[in-house]
Design brief:
- The two termini are 31 Å apart.
- With 212 residues, this protein is mainly alpha-helical.
- 59% of the residues lie in helices and 2% in strands.
- It has one domain: Rhomboid-like (Rhomboid-like fold).
- The chain is built from eight helices and two strands.
- 40% of the residues are buried.
- The protein is globular and about 50 Å long.
């Protein structure tokens, strides 16, 4: 069974995007600003809730689909290892950290438009998953080298794509840094569940002979 927390976050992103469609705000940065996006001039005017709400908004379908796919993969990986509550802590702390870094950057280089997207929080989960895949006390959850490699691929490609104009390198870096810290500090879930990052074994089959 997949993680409830990951599913809930994904459901929120889809529901908010449906509201964007209903309001005709898809692709309209000004309209998204009115829905809770971060202003690209870095001035919140006391509206600190934007440090969370911006992450639920997406500019277009491709933006949402890319973030949703990555969230589903890495979110389940993290949730299986730390549980639903700590997944929420890791995600939200990464979202807020990303938002703060974006605001600090925008204050120094204000420009028109608004900032949206869950990628700061997702970069945080990727970083968190990478640390968890190397923690010795998390070995019982599985630490396959192939999964570690794919996490590194996502990180390299993600930061490479962050250099494209219009993509927030500052937000991705802020979320990633928060995720690294979360990965080291979060307590582990008491018992492993099904592994979303590894193929499941058919029922009735043996895991193979044990080795000393």
């Amino acid at each position: 069974m997949r993680g409830k927390g990951t599913f809930f976050i994904l459901a929120v992103l889809v529901a908010v995007f449906a509201v964007e469609m209903a309001k005709g705000a898809v692709g309209d940065e000004l309209a998204l600003l009115g829905m809770g996006a971060l202003p690209n001039d870095g001035r919140l005017h006391g509206e600190y809730w934007r440090l969370v709400t911006y992450s639920a908004l997406h500019l277009n379908y491709a933006h949402l689909l890319l973030n949703a796919a990555l969230l589903w993969w890495v979110g389940n990986m993290v949730e299986r290892r730390v549980g639903t509550a700590w997944l929420a802590v890791a995600y939200l702390s990464s979202v807020v950290a990303a938002g703060l870094v974006i605001i600090l950057f925008d204050l120094s280089r204000p420009h028109p438009g608004s900032g949206v997207g869950a990628s700061g929080g997702i970069f945080g989960l990727v970083a968190c998953a990478l640390v968890l895949m190397h923690r010795r006390d998390a070995a019982r959850f599985g630490q396959k080298s192939g999964v570690r490699l794919w996490l590194w691929v996502v990180i390299v490609v993600g930061f490479g794509a962050s250099l494209i104009p219009g993509v927030s390198l500052s937000g991705h870096a802020g979320g990633f840094a928060a995720g690294l810290i979360a990965g080291w500090l979060l307590p582990l879930h008491p018992s492993p569940g099904p592994r979303p990052d590894e193929p499941s074994r058919p029922q009735g089959t043996s895991p193979g002979p044990s080795r000393p």
